[in-house]
Design a protein that fits this description.
- The protein folds into 2 domains: about 5-120, 3-Layer(aba) Sandwich (Rossmann fold); about 130-200, Arc Repressor Mutant, subunit A (Orthogonal Bundle).
- About 55% of the residues lie in helices and about 10% in strands.
- The chain has helices at about 10-25, 35-40, 60-70, 85-95, 105-120, 130-140, 145-155, 160-165, 170-185, 190-200; strands spanning about 5-10, 30, 50-55, 75-80, 100.
- Strands 2-1-3-4-5 form a 5-stranded parallel sheet, sandwiched between helices.
- Strand 1 (about 5-10), helix 1 and strand 2 (about 30) form a beta-alpha-beta unit.
- The radius of gyration is 18 Å and the shape is globular.
- The model is unreliable at about 200-205 (pLDDT under 50).
Length: about 210
Amino acid sequence: MTDGICIVDDDDAVRDSLRMLLSVKGFKPQAFASAEAFLDGFDPEGCCCVIADVCMRGMSGLEMLERLRERHASMPVIIITAHGDVPTAVAAMKAGAADFIEKPYDNALLVSRIRQIVSLRDQGGVSSEVVRGIRERIEQLSRREREVLDLVAAGISNKVIAGRLGVSTRTVEIHRAHMMEKMEAESLSDLIRMVTTIDILSPRDSG
């Protein structure tokens, strides 16, 4: 397993902070000030994981992720943003991001996620046991909770979900909390990762 980490962010302070953090944790970080610079200069053999901001001057982190997938680059990408929202998280995860983390993030959590993601890649991806566990948790959901799961995972806000289901926003919030607990999802990115892992999402209008 290589320990090279590529940091892609147009904020000098963020790049320096991440580079210092990852160096202390035993990684070999390489920083890029733009998505374009990264795509032109990264070494696919020396990079085990990419950390990229969503909003950058020029090409965005999501556009960069799409370019990587077009090149069939296999390294996992963690998308970081200061302006997290459901549609952006869904777009990132469906585009192939390994995780979606909001700023300000906890350093220990970020390092832990990097190690988990790299380890998972080295093991050849998600095991059949993990997939089976996700399916079993989905089967525990009530009909309404499953409806909420599908709509949340499609990038739809609680307010719009409430209108579609003919219930109050507060009711959606309660169903969503119960659904997240049953799915054992600690965050939205956890939930989206589960859904995309077992490929249960059908194309939907995200209105």
